[in-house]
Queue: 2 jobs
Job 1
Amino acid sequence: MRRRDSGGSALERARSLSFQFDGRELQGFEGDTLASALLAGGVRLVGRSFKYHRPRGVMSAGSEEPNALVELLRDGVYHPNIRATTQELHMGLQARAQNCWPSARRDVMAVNDWLSPFLGAGFYYKTFMWPRAFWEHLYEPLIRRAAGLGRLPQSHQDAPHEKAFAFCDLLVIGAGPAGLMAALTAARAGADVILAEEDRQMGGRLLSDHGQIDGMPGGTWAAGVVAELASLPNVRLMPRTSVFGAYDGGVYGALERGALHMAAPARTPRECYWRITAKRVVLASGALERPIAHPDNDRPGVMLLGAVASYWQRFAVDPGRVVVFGNNDHALATAKALAADGMDIRAYIDPRDGLATDAPFTVYAGAEVIGTRGRHGLQHVTLRHKGREFRMDADTLALSGGWNPSLHLACHMNGRPVWDDTIAAFIPRPGMVPDMEAIGAAAGQFSTHAALESGARAAAGALDALGLRAPECAFPQAEDAPYAIQPLWQVQGKGRAWLDFANDVTTRDVALAAREGFASVEHMKRYTTQGMAPDQGKSSNMGALAVLADATGGTIAGTGTTTFRPPFVPVSIAALGAGGYGKSFAPERLTTSDAQARAMGAPMIEAGLWYRPSYFPQADDRDWRDACNREALHVRNAVGVCDVSTLGKIDLQGPDAARFLDFVYTNTMSSLKPGRVRYGLMLREDGHVMDDGTCARLGDQHFLITTTTAAAGEVMRHLDFVQQAFCADWAVRLISVTEAWAQFAIAGPLADEVLGHIFGDLPELPFMGCAPVDLGAVAGRLFRISFSGERGYELAVPARYGADLFRQLVALAEGLGGGAYGMEALNVLRIEKGFVTHAEIDGRVTAFDLGLQGMVSPRKDFIGRAASQRAGLTGAARLQLVGLRPVNAQAEITAGAHLYAPDQPARAAFGQGHVKSVCYSPTLQSWLALALVRNGRARRGERLRLDDGLRGIRVDVEICNPVFFDPDGGRMRD
Amino acid sequence: MRLICPCCGWRDRREFTYMGADDYLHRPVPDAPPEAWDEYLHNRTNPAGAARDLWYHDPCGTWVCITRDTITHAVTDGTRLEDAQ
Amino acid sequence: MIELTPAPAFAALSLPVTGAGTRIDALPPARITALAPYCGQLQALHALLGGFPEPGQVLELDGLRLVWAGRDLAFAFGEALPTGIEAHAALTDQSDGWAGLSLTGPGAEALLARRLPFDVRRMAVPGAARSLLGHMPVLVIALGRDEFELWLWRSMAACVLHHLTPV
């Protein structure tokens, strides 16, 4: 193989590019693919096959390539399974063959090929069966080392990938004659059109075949259409884009090749994962040529005829001495056209008898190729003609076993295609995917005229459905040659005939599968691995099921196809995950005090989507516990400040607001007086606790309720549901105001002094009272509520003032011997007081379990009431909230530990409950826990064994009141 | 998958949160017998074909009753709950 | 008595950002009042305001921009709310809850269209839509084919900007 001196419609010969393959310096041109540049550079051997490590060369010129999978060096990392046939050449590209060591030419695993008689279909299943113990330590590592195509990069990939959305009236998939005609017709009518094409260039087979449209070369016609489409504002051309999946609701997945596959400016995404939503779709994905399963058909130099034509026409690759083996009219016509163009075609071989022999090369009718030779590349071809066998020298054997419509996308919703005898292939059925029509070669119509005609017709149909009028336009003239084929599924002879080149599956393997009982096509696929390589059997599925039909004595139509599933081409995980990792994995919500907290050195932890400070370290702290103890003691002895803005805040207004709250809370809110706050409990309709929080009555018809941080979204959805489903005609409106307010807890015996500094004189506020307040010119809200058990307030201001207020509050608190406190201290303070959070409200607890049955009103209906009265949700059998103290106060205890009677084993049957939250209380100088214990409230004073098998902790504990500190609440109330 | 929001029109499924069958709309009267509540809370028909279920369109806060076909996956209707009773 | 200094939502972020034919900049803080009409009060509200936006609508009224912002909900941008309106609708101050970005330039529409899961190109001008950017709630206002406002939760300002800027 070599480069022709002229020609090559895709090439820019003025721009020469140097690149490396397997360490070898090579030259190509702008416009080359890696495959075309390798072929032009005389490189025929580009990799090794999966199982037998057979030498393999480029077979196709598109994304269906089974052989030419290489590793590409980009940003210091090798990317595996890059198809050389779609990889664009650029200056300095570095690639290497994969699945071989030390090189494609000298690969030590090629010994598998000599062992091939023992490695047939099902070899692994049969061999690595026993002894069972060998699996994990011997067989699996052994197989893993030998198996797999390519190696994954072992480092984290953070180069940019993009995810993007697009919408259109009409999505045209494929820019061959049919797709171009459809897009043009729809575009001229004003429809919003996306034309997606896998190749860098639009035109499909018009770029490589020799037909004429309207008297001009097909490529010239295509270029004119593309230019017109590009000039229209209602058309988006998407070259380099493979539509890989059809999904419900007119949604299509597409992969646009970016910086990984071409020369591109810095920061260009490597690939873009598109989700295209289309009202109508035209599938014009063309057809894929079939190879022929003749003995030794896998040698480098054996290619598809269409690929040979494409490399010749677009990339000026001279394939040397060519022998063509075909079974259809299209193959002979192509060979004649190529010969007329100067290709050195030595012979045309066809199993059909009685072919006209008006060609400039020898035509062997009624003949078959029965073997090839050449260790690392084809040297000669053996054929059988009229009972005679003889050899011909050849550099390239071009195969054409007919064409398979690319109907994959049409089958993605589990539709099954139908068999068409006239073209010996499956074609799509109408309506397999709603609003999609397959046209042209994808529908089994192979002439250029039929492609153009079906494109125009499909577009007119789509326009009609969209309410647009198809334009009058002159219909282009093109060939309408009939397509005749005589199926040739396998050539009998010595040597192996390959079906699946990527996974090394031969005709014998398929026959063996059938003999061994794997006669269904789905079983055969899994037994032989045919069709399971990166190419998903694009070039082998049809042949394999024909051989299977033959082996089982059935018809091809009756044998049926395996299930077509997305993706049509391999999609990298990085592309699928685009926009969903790092900062984009989940939104980050930052409080107004975030910068200040970080500046104070606080490690931040996630609370829902929010980030909150764990603790505020100081220089002489030994560990986080020192900081946590200090902050908790600040609150107990002086004053602490904590950002509590992350709690959900929902504003409810209207004449029926109180009535609504009575319906969603277990307790009564309508009796709450304006200016007062009440603790409230919400149940799910199934009777379990959903959330707790406070409810403040700001005015007669105006309430502000809080939710826990993590449940804010769930509660909002729930309240919206209750309102819209059951109270739609009530005069009540609710809206989240979480974001609008920054809110800070000021807690401790000196809290009033902080407020005194802020307000001049202290507003009179009873425990569980609330009032509007002025902070200079800023209107705020003050609540006298406490989650710490100390005298405490929560002060809310519009969020823009949050940062400054927090800074000033911390300074005031520090001046009084206190300071900021974080989540760790907050947790200690609330456990000391027995206040529950979602650590305890785990979705399975009831109000009774928490000891809050007194909050469940018997006098009204509310969400969850009926179910909460079910048998089994109350009583002695329930796990109930209790406190636990270790007998040895300094013995560490852990959350998640299980509880057992001291003399019983740590087995589920003996479980008495489990620990929900623990802390070390610096105030009480003891470890404390909140736990759920069977019939716990009646068992105070009883001893249990806390057993944390995971961490090896076993500690004797005593059941006690969950309110460890200030049980009558005088500190916060008085 | 795409669903209909009565406010916003056809939208991507990612904008919605699923709740369950539209049985949730038919809340028994408060003093209904336990069997009625059991039916309401737990028992579903799992139809092959037309089904109605409840989705929350998070961006606009609308609860939607969606009619769809569990065999073909076709979504045919989306109404506000007031209109779905 | 304390004095408080306001901080803008995008204080710590470097704006404007330009690229891909788009300029992204912070909008000045706006007075935003959420108007949620009570059941049966839409007509009265209409009369009082001179209109109330249907889904997707933006109404420019006397000194007030009314933007559809959700189910039975409009955001009023501006100070001039008529007296007595609270009898017909629940009013909440959302000025501090939402931060605004302006996206202008010939590439603005295409950038938003790539990022948002609905067809931004089909938005009316002026027009409004609620959607999710990534997983983040947004209110999109189209004021021209090359002029958009994107309103987002204040706490997500940094994250939205990260998600929006061209990779």
Job 2
Amino acid sequence: MSHLLLERVSKHYGSTTVLDSIDLAVERGALVCLLGPSGCGKTTTLRLIAGFVEPSTGTISVGGNILSRPGNVLAPERRGMSMIFQSYALWPHMTIFENVAFGLTLRKFDKAQISAAVGRMLSAVKLDHLAERYPGELSGGQQQRVALARALVVDPEILLLDEPLSNLDAALREEMRFEVRRLHDEFRYTTVYVTHDQAEAMTAADIIVVMNGGRIEQIGSPEDIYTRPRSGFVANFLGGANVLSGKALDDIRLDIGAGVVRCAEPLFTKDQVGAFSIRFHELDIRAEEGVNTVQARVTRQTFLGATRDLSLVLSDGTTLRASTAPDLRIPESGAVWVRFDPQRCRPVTL
Amino acid sequence: MTATPALKSFATADGRHPAGIDLSAGVLGAIFLFLAALVGLPLLWLAVFAFTNAKGMPTLANFGDLVSDPDLLDPLITTFSLAALVAVFAAISAAPLAWLVSRTNLPGRRIVRALLTASFVTPPFLGAISWEILAAPNSGILNRLWREMSGGTEALFDIYTFSGLVFVVTCYTAPYVFVVLSNALDRIPADLEDAAGILGASRWRVVRAITLPLALPALLAGALVAFLQAMTLFGSPAILAIPAGFHTITTKIYSLFQFPPKPEVAAAAALPLLIVTMLLLFMQSRLLGRRGYAVVGGKSGEARLMALGIWRWPAFALVMMVLALPLFLPYGALLKAAFSRVPAGPLDLASLTLTHVNFVFIEFSQTRRAFANTFILALGTASAGTILTLLIAYMVARQGGRAGRLLEALASAPLAIPGIVLGVGLFLAYTRGPLVLYGTLWILFFAFLTIELPVAYQQMRASFRGLHPELEEASRVLGATRLGTLRRITAPLLKSGVIAGWCLIFIGVVRELSAAVILSSQNTKVLSVVIFDLNESGDLGAIAVIGVTMLLLTFAIIGFANWIAGVGADPRRAVG
């Protein structure tokens, strides 16, 4: 049975719907990433789980006990959860030690226990030498690790992270992605992690939940979501992809206007509109016509070192992006053929 | 090339760029000299007098008198006890108020905030006189009511005591603490409180462990402001302490100007006030400048207001009772005194009268002249001060550098000069050659300009801070001239800030007493001084009429200024 369960949870502010009846089940010890563009409802979902926001419909339960339902929300302080904020929210008037010890003091541990537990946790995040400093004296990465230590030391039922790395610079962000994953492997708390950065989600998560416009688009492992996106949005948001649509000639072939493309999986319905996605680097640019090819013209090419980035336009005006080998030679006229590998053309919903 | 007609002025016929005449160096120099004279001269004369005797010989005897003569030492002790007690009581009363207004779901929070801010407009001396009407031992309204109810002859309150003075000064000083503290409470990021909440801290625990410690530096800074206010105040002690037979340092300085005048002793007595003020201001800027602690930035959600539950309405009642002390009771007393024969008599139709109104506006010749003087000075100082501080702020913001910092320091310096000290300095500076201004409105004009300079400058600086230079540069790049940019970009964006600055000066001038009482003469009396004189002759009804009229006119002027600001105001202003 799943540990954290959201059932048909919605959130409306007046006539605005922020969250539209989402269902989510998280297994004990799993790290789940809520991934999506800003305004997709991911932070609202997190604050609903924390108890800062009351749901308009639906229930949120942990271990079978309902914590939130409309009109009845257990206060955040009584949920045994921990949360890491985008701003870290370290208390500037307390030392690092006092910050980390705060939750334990509330739980009435005695002095010796607190000092032992805080010491253990600070060395787990490699900050034991800074225990007596104040947050203002630490770098961004160090503050981030204090926030992690403060959240983990209380042995939380569920750990919530709200865009925890977005205030760090690029290099540090990459390092902290692995740090978050390492600490999760060490402590294995049920974790919900909110981010808009797909690389962050891919590195950290067991399960990725892609959200868009207050709805869940797809749930799955990072590999699953990347290789088998179910919607055009998911394909585009994770890694970027061309999404092409047209009328299905049968269950496997689509008339995209500039030509007919055959996919490997028989998922289309004859005479209805279908769509498939194909990633930029999966398009095969060649000089001659072949099997499953469509004619195109190169409108712009950019040399990026490891790859060459092409903008293409099909005869019906559809534009495509392709990422090819850097040494590819494009004829003066720009006229090329694009081959669609049927194995790479994944039917998606629009 | 359709755009060329507009661009043709970019080059002159001989191909060189037209050179604009740069006036800024000259203007900068002139402002600098003016400010240096404005602030420096009075202080210089103050120092000269403090260190010379009546014959003009250098001496330290004036300071010897200060510590040995009990007539001078006692006021010094009284002043510091008063200031310390006021600071403590103002902090104690303002802290819960600020917390309730900023951080809880108290009913009518916005109204409470507006009312407390409005009590700034009340001149402290008017507040003190209102409390005379309420709590004078024999005639005070509250004491009359008490005697009627208890049947006794004892007075419940006696406002003419040291504790009465502490009470009244606290009433009109606590709003300063409130404003400093509630601004700080508004700025505490909600994340910091949420972080404690999710770790298991109850609402009260969050308040105690997180909110209050973070607001503590602001509370201390607010208490320092209260201390300063109480220490340099002249009106309230002059009205309440002198009848009670004791002096504070400011009333002592004033009495040293009565016959026989001893300006050199007054100058010596003013110096400690000046030095302590500078020290306290330095401490305060350290407290607030560091913002206490570095608060980490980042997006933070809307503050969660604490639900008071069943305590909501009791808390509201408490707040209203507190607000009664500086606002409802005194204003009620003032209105009653203005329109009834005997201020403290029972309230009935028979006692209603227009005698006081008639006296003030028809019989009493001084009033009309004082009204005229006050409004000429208020309008003149507000307009001149606005232009001056606008120029200074512009120079500092766009010039910067050492010259800018020096200019800024000069414009802020009067903050450290208590009104009565400046009054003494100006008196000493302009009762002798080369420039004899005593007896004219000009000396009051310079006094008010100096006193209001720092507040107005800070207002202008804040406006310029919100105006990024790139907004002007974008206009210049598109082809607007310097003046065109000023007219079409800078001025509209600064408008509301400038009007706010003008209003601040206007209010400040109308309520100023401590410098005016020393500098005004028979023909240059302003309203505050007339009220002060009438109080000495016990004419409370007339005072009430003048006071009410003064407040109404002030509100009308502010309303008018805000109406001007509102005409054509742009709701998208926040972009600036």
